[in-house]
Amino acid sequence: MTLDSIGGAGGAWLIAALVLGIAELAAPGVFLVFLAIAAAITGVAVLVLADLPVAAQLASFAAWSAVTVMIGRRWYTDYPVAAADPLLNDRAARMIGQVARIDVALVNGAGRVRVGDGTWPAQGPDLAPGTDVRVVGVKDGVVVVEPLGSTASTPA
Description:
Elements: H1 8-26, H2 32-48, H3 54-78, H4 91-95, E1 99-107, E2 110-115, E3 118-123, E4 132-139, E5 142-147
Parallel strand pairs: 3-5
Antiparallel strand pairs: 1-2, 1-4, 2-3, 4-5
């Protein structure tokens, strides 16, 4: 089987589309699929217009790549993909509601707390080291805490 038997340059573009589509499935990133669509459109154009010069093929691929990426970007803006865990990569937001322990005394509203395996700068009422607190917010990388059993809620 030669390149000429599968449509010459048009077949090459269609094979490139297939390879890009498979690569998208192997390493999903929602980007290669748009290049695969552009390659498929270019492949069909080359099959229809057999004498299309290489420069025009490359220009077609570049133009269709830009168009499909813009369409895809708009699509994912209008219809975002719902995540199973929206806080997966938001460590600060995941801390809200957790119980922490004062590591360095909160004096004049500032100190450090231990949350999980790390310590964070904290703000809240003056408290001694070892006091258990609840994380009620995170603001600019500073954990906002309140003593356990407190009914007041500090805005994040």
